[in-house]
Structures are given as C-alpha cells and as structure tokens.
Amino acid sequence: MLLEIKDLNTFYEQSHILQGISLGIDTGEIGCLLGRNGVGKSTTIKSIIGLVIPQSGEVLFKSRNVAGMPPHDIAKLGVGYVPEDRRIFPTLSVRENLIMGVKPGQKNNEDGWSVEKVYKYFPGLQARDKQKGGFLSGGEQQMLTIARTLMGNPEVLLIDEPTEGLAPLIVKTVEQVIQDIHQHNIPILLVEQNMRVALRLAGRIYVMSKGKIVFHGTSRELKEAQEVREKYLEV
Ligand SMILES: Nc1ncnc2c1ncn2[C@@H]1O[C@H](COP(=O)(O)OP(=O)(O)O)[C@@H](O)[C@H]1O
Ligand SMILES: [Mg+2]
Fold first, then answer.
1. CATH assignment of the domain containing 203
2. Amino acid 61: pLDDT
3. Which protein residues are within 6 Å of ligand 1, measured from CB?
C-alpha cells in the first residue's frame, strides 16, 4: 500500500470521532471513502494530513509513519490535499492561484506540473487565466483547487467531496478531471457522500458510519450489497 492507515483513533475534546479506522490505497488506484454527512470522513482525511492529530494509530505513507507530523511536512513528502471548502484566493488571478500551489523550495523534474501543463488538463481554467478567483463559478473553483494542489507535485491526492453542491453536468466534468489525473499515475483517495460518483470512479470503496468502516469492497461488491447501501448510504 502506498498510503495506509491503521486503527486510527481521533478525538475532538471528549468526542471519540474516529473509532479504529483502517484503510489503504495503492499505486494506480482510485479509492473512495463514502458515507453520510457527519460520519467522520473529513476528520479521517485531516488525521492523515496532520491538520488533526490522531490519539492513536498509524498513518503510513510509503511505509513511513507520518501520524502527528506537521501538515507542511506531510505535504512535502508528497501527500496532496484538496479541502472541502475550496480555499481559493478571490483577489488573485487563476494563474496566481495556481502558483500559490508550488511548495517552498520545490524543484520540478520533467514529470512535474507547471501552469502550462495544468492547463492541458483543465482547458476551462486556461480560458480564465487572468480572471480573479472570486469571479469563478463553483465548478471552476473546484477545478482550480484541484489544479493548485497538483502544482505541488503530489504523489497521492486526497480530495474531500469535490462534487458537493455542483450541478450534474459540472459533476461529470469534475469526474473526468479526476480520471485524467489518475491516468497521469496519481493515486487518489476520494471522499464522497454521493454513491453514484463513487461507483463510477472508484475501484476500492470504504463505507463509513459513525466513526467506523462498515464495508470495504469493490464497486461491484457494493452494488450487490443492498443491505449496506440501504443502511448506510441511500435514504
Ligand atoms: N473541529 C471540530 N470540533 C468538534 N467537533 C467536530 C469538529 N469537526 C467536526 N466535528 C464533528 O465530528 C463529526 C465528524 O465530522 P466530519 O469528519 O466533518 O464528518 P464528514 O466529513 O463525514 O461530514 C461530526 O459530528 C462533526 O460535528
Ligand atoms: Mg466532510
């Protein structure tokens, strides 16, 4: 496994939010952490990237335990994070926003991402090169957040609810971009509430409920697991 978490327990004050979460994704995979609102998906991602310190358990990235390291160190090792709240800089242009994604001291080899290379994957952003971030639509802002994270040359990408609040047509565009990035050999851990998106994109799916993983299997297995879908996903 490229990224693996083992028996992670995370608290907010007295609340025991993550209760022994274990999951992993391997090179070449899109994995999905799927579950309803408030079950602990974002807390899981934040525990991986160091925004929240887990009380116990391991976060293994390339077999090294990074649990408890500061977020910028974990990012530097190659873990890219696309937050759920699309923190773009509204007064900076699209290009300037992208450049903000370059890490201090970063050196690019030929595989590295540049603004020009990012634009090949996101032609919609290229068309808005000089536009201020604050004037972009929700879908464009989501694209920009993903693209900006790529500028830091991540080896794995964690994306928190990229399709939330987007119109169906835009959801398709975001899905296409995620697939394109995956084709570029970047494994992805996707967090989703939308089962349909997960089934279309992910090979490996973890279903989460109340701080625990309640199902782990392929998208085909989840399609067949009607009980799991009814109990934890569909309303
Ligand atoms: N900073 C915080 N302090 C206290 N409780 C929090 C905080 N962030 C999230 N929570 C609570 O932790 C639980 C899991 O939240 P979260 O991981 O954001 O869920 P999800 O991403 O699945 O919607 C929820 O009950 C939420 O209210
Ligand atoms: Mg969340």
1. 3.40.50.300
2. 98
3. 12, 15, 17, 35, 37-43
